[in-house]
Amino acid sequence: MTSLDPVFDKDGVRLTVDDAVATVTLTNPAKRNAQSPALWRALTEAGRALPGSVRVVVLRGEGKSFSAGLDRQAFAPEGFDGEPSFLDMARGPEAGLDATIAEYQEAFTWWRRNDIVSVAAVQGHAIGAGFQLALACDLRIVAEDVQFAMRETSLGLVPDLTGTHPLVHLVGYARALEICATGRFVHAEEAERTGLANLVVPADQLEAAAADLAAALLAAPRDAVVETKALLSGAVSRSYEEQRIAERAAQGRRLRDLAGLAD
Q1: pLDDT tens across 169-212, in order?
Q2: Of 231, 146, 247, 239, nearest to 197 (Cα)?
Q3: First to last CA, the chain
Q4: Fewest CB within a 10 Å sphere: which of 25, 40, 135, 223?
Q5: Rounded Cα–Cα distance for residues 14 and 61 (Å)
Q6: CA 225 → CA 104, 116, 168, 260, distances in Å?
Q7: CA 214, CA 19: separation in Å to the nearest integer?
Q8: How high does pLDDT run on average in the chain?
Q9: What is the mean pLDDT of residues 125-131?
Q10: Residue 189: how many other CB atoms lie within 10 Å
Q11: Are 99 and 58 a contacting pair, CB within 8 Å?
């Protein structure tokens, strides 16, 4: 599928596809791409709508900020139009609240699928849910003006949109705890030094840098990248010996596939 026309464009999310590269864009710069349940449902739909030809997904936000986090209207008594407020949800059954949060989390989980590599191009504010959305991706390119912060704890909440696992994996438990508990900003230099960012570029070069990385990711054969991603992502939970076995199994599959192609 080759088209720069949107696959869909609604609720603050636009999905476009150009051959093997899809771009998911947050499209509400007037509100610094603040997030809502409708936006999360649109992000989930974006993942489901990806054609099988897509190998790389670039996530970006329009305007000066990637995403300033959850729209505070969620905590207003009236909530969003057509949506229960978070306060009303909290008063309901515990099982219902858990199911609702699980539904919200789906917007953040598909970015780690083995069949794609996801790249977040992050500028300006990436706060709370915005930080967690950037963390949901495999890779992050950031502008020099980036400001990451996990503000949930400061509001009496916890990060619950899948960001805690990748944050601890990237920067370690002690630094992750300090970042979350204090709610402080993490700027570009620290992000690159600690592994939150793969690359820091001037803001006006962010789009080009993401395109260059996407092209580089497409250079290797797709099956090899898929197998390698699965191998690396599983290494976190495997022992050294288990990882050796997984490497052998993955390489065996690749060699058998190559041998079949050579016949």
Answers
A1: 999 999 999 999 999 999 999 999 999 999 999 999 999 999 99
A2: 146
A3: 30
A4: 223
A5: 10
A6: 29, 9, 24, 18
A7: 12
A8: 94
A9: 98
A10: 12
A11: no
Please give the helix or strand (H or E) that residue 59 lies within, else none: strand 56-61
In the Cβ-directed half-sphere of 67, how many Cα atoms lie within 13 Å?
Answer: 29
What does the DSSP 8-state code read for residue 200?
E
The Cα–Cα gap between 142 and 137 comes to 13
Q: What is the pTM of this model?
A: 0.93
Bin 162: left if φ > 0, else alpha if -120 < ψ < 50, else beta.
Answer: left
Write b or e for each residue in 46-64: b if 16 or more Cβ atoms lie within 10 A of its Cβ, otherwise e.
Answer: bbeebeeebbbbbbbbbbe
Q: Is 124 left (phi over 0), alpha (psi -120 to 50) or beta?
A: left
Calculate the CA 179 to chain-centre distance: 18
Q: Taking each helix axis from N to C terminus, what angle separates 164-171 and 129-136, rounded to the nearest 10 degrees?
A: 70
DSSP percent split of the chain into helix, strand, coil, nearest 5: 50, 20, 30
Closest of 128, 2, 159, 3 to residue 66, by C-alpha: 128
Q: What is the pLDDT of residue 87?
A: 78
Helix (H, G, I), strand (E, B) or coil at 179: helix
Mean pLDDT of 118-134: 98
Nearest to 245 by CA among 256, 255, 234: 234
Average pLDDT of the residues in 219-235: 96
- Eight-class DSSP state of 67: B
Q: Positive or negative, the Cα torsion across 126, 130, 132, 137?
A: negative
Give me 245's structure tokens: 């076995």
Closest CA to 118 of 134, 142, 99: 134
Amino acid identity at 59: L
